[in-house]
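Lab notebook, bench 4. Still working through the backlog of constructs that have no structural model yet. Next entry is a single chain of 215 residues. Request: give me the structure tokens for it.
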Amino acid sequence: MTVSVPLQPRSPSPPPPTAFTPGILASRLTELYATALQSTLRTCSYNNFAACFPTPAAHKPELLRSLWQQVVGKIEEKGREEFEGILGEREVVEGLNRLEAVLEAGRGRRDRAAAEGKGAENEGTGVGVAPHLLPPLDLYHAHLSPQLVPIQASLEDKLQSTRSRNEKLVMLIQKQREEVERLVGGLEAVVKDLEGANEVLGDVVGSVKTELVEI
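Model written out:
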């Protein structure tokens, strides 16, 4: 006589592969970076920039404003390029998409278990929490922390390098400021020389005009 063996229920199939298109977590990360970058750039307003160059701001405000726009635009462009480069190099978007899929699958299993009344820990049986009932944050720490910790360290290194480049850029701006002030000082000296020459020429022209009238 053949004894039939009941089939074990199949475990849920793994989530489908995630596309490169940013999900909720990746989009939120991008939004947070864009907000932080804009907040940083707002501290470098034209008024703050002009306060560092009082002479050009008084005599050539259009030129100084154009220089300010170029500097701010360059900082924003480099910041976005560095951020996008880090995302691509470390596959951050794909990793966050996978994390999002794992969290969503965990929430689905938890909801299904709750609907089926599989809450043994609430019945005083002493049975621990089943893995599929763990909250998303515990699943995150258990499965993805070993992968995300090196990524976080790499991101911190990249950000530190960006800060160092920004400091060098500030030093370059300071040198440009000193050069602009030197040029403006030279122009002021030339203007004074021209004014003195005009005074001398005025006296000469007056004298010649008097002699012509007497003739």
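Notes after review: The chain has seven helices and no strands. Helices lie at 24-43, 46-51, 54-59, 61-89, 92-115, 136-143, 145-214. Flag for follow-up if needed.
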